[in-house]
Amino acid sequence: MSMKIQFKRFLCESASGDDIYEYQEKYVNSHMLVVMNSYTSLDRFMNLSAEKIEHTISVFEQYGSGWHFNLIMGCDTRIGKFKLFKAWDWMDVPFRLKSKRATINVRTKRNFCFKMAVFCALHKPRNPRKPSSYKKFEHLYNFKCVVDFPVSISSISRFEEANGIAINVFTEHSADGLWHVQISQFNYTSYRTVNLLLLTDAKTGATHYVTITDNDKLLGQRKFHRRKLCYNCLQRIRLCQQNCESETCERLCIFERHRIQCENHEFQKVKMPKRKNGETPTIEFTNFRHQIKVGYVVYADMECLLKPLSSPFSGSVGGKTEKKKIHVPTGFSYAVVKEDSILIAHRVYRGRDGVDIFLQDLLQIATIVADIYKLNIPLCMTESNENEFLSASYCHICSRKFDDSPDDPKCRDHNHLTGLYRGASHQSCNINYTQKEILPVFMHNF
To answer: What is the distance between the alpha carbons of residues 163 and 186, in angstroms, rounded to a whole number?
Structure first.
């Protein structure tokens, strides 16, 4: 469910005494929920959606700089058909996967492919593809916890806890390769790990579990005997030593550092871009306007005295920091520097009213700088500048070659504050290569 909410906040008071408000529109979404029963689950969905939206609105009102709820402008409820994900029947492994020799497909009958796939991963009989080879292992595991066969994805967690087995289920796409369906929370623990591949028939929707015997072959990777697979991103991470398996490694190997950070996020997979027309794809920097130096900058420092407090107190309820002294401003100094590193103005001041004087000076400087930014000094070209422009073959902004296109011709770029010629550029680059009208203030130890 999604709602379009209008918020308002007080802006100012008009000459007639009326309040003037500023308005803002935001979309607030609820959580997605599977509705299995239209009589009970639908009411639960509506209640949970209302609670989520109300909570989001209250948080925005509390931390949104004075914004308050005004009215609901619209509501949208999106409904999708839920497809039950189960394994149903036996099917053959596609040739592109079978040729990798990284899976074993037990030829099961009825709906016991999950059971046979787990047995195949944990035991090594003479004929691993024959279901009768696993009868002697059935008494070792508890399958009553999965309720019924075929086994659904939601039932796997119960099987893991009842048998001490970590089960990871993957699916395979011809374009994206191996992808996750279920990643166990018991990976890298004392639980034994089982990796399964879930095949899906595109026509009938039937699915089938297959045992993965070699993840490296299935992922198309080789020579990773000194690395360990991270199931959360399907990357092989280096170990601190060849036989490192401990979670409390004294050297805190690279794999453990990666795993701790990676498990804080949802499953993700690195997909490298493919070549286009034989060329390697690249990422280029295009926000060239961010390379322009600001016209003016202020460097400042505030001096204070430490005044002991009559009665020390804690900064917050239950906090461990005890405040014993307070900073009392006694003066300041600042320097205004131009983009070409020329000192424009500076001041040193001492007094009890140092903060007020400092802020007043900053406002005056900001007003002057804002007026300067409004200037537009015409281009002043010299003979050497003109010769350089005529002979230029590359744009000095984006470094691309000029192609004599009438839609993007070559033009002269100059500094609007000084009128000096900067170089030849594309017209599109020149339009976007604008000066930021801001005044940065850098405070020392602030």
So the answer is: 12
E strand segments, 101-201: 103-104, 165-173, 177-182, 192-200
Radius of gyration, alpha carbons of the chain: 34
The 8-class DSSP code of residue 274 comes to: P
Q: Where do we find the tokens 């205004």? A: 336
Instruction: Note the helical H segments in 312-441.
Output: 354-373, 383-391, 427-432
* pTM assigned to the model: 0.48
Q: Can you give the three-state secondary structure of 207-240, one letter per residue? A: EEEEEECCHHHHHCCCCCCCEEEECCCCEEEECC
**CB burial of residue 206 (10 Å; 0-12, 13-18, 19+):** middle
The confidence score (pLDDT) of residue 435 equals 82
> Cα angle at 267 between 265 and 270, to 5 degrees?
105
pLDDT at 4: 87
Name residue 296's beta-bridge partners.
338
3-state secondary structure of 130: coil
Residue among 44, 69, 66, 40 at smallest CA distance from 54: 69
Of the CA atoms within 13 Å of residue 112, those in its CB half-sphere come to 17
Neighbours of 115 (CB within 10 A): 23
State the Cα–Cα distance between residues 101 and 177, nearest whole angstrom.
16
Contact of 323 with 317, CB cutoff 8 Å? no
Calpha distance 197→118 (Å, rounded) = 11
Yes or no: say if 161 and 142 are a contact pair by the CB < 8 Å rule: no
Ranges of the chain with pLDDT below 50: none
Write the single-letter amino acid at 184: S
Q: What is the residue-wise DSSP string for 4-46? A: EEEEEEEEEE-TTS-EEEEEEEEEEE--------TTTHHHHHH
HSE-CB for 253 with a 13 A CA cutoff: 18
Q: Which DSSP category does 279 fall into?
A: B
Phi-psi region of 307 (alpha: psi -120 to 50; beta: other; left: phi over 0): beta
Pairing state between β 207-212 and 343-350: unpaired
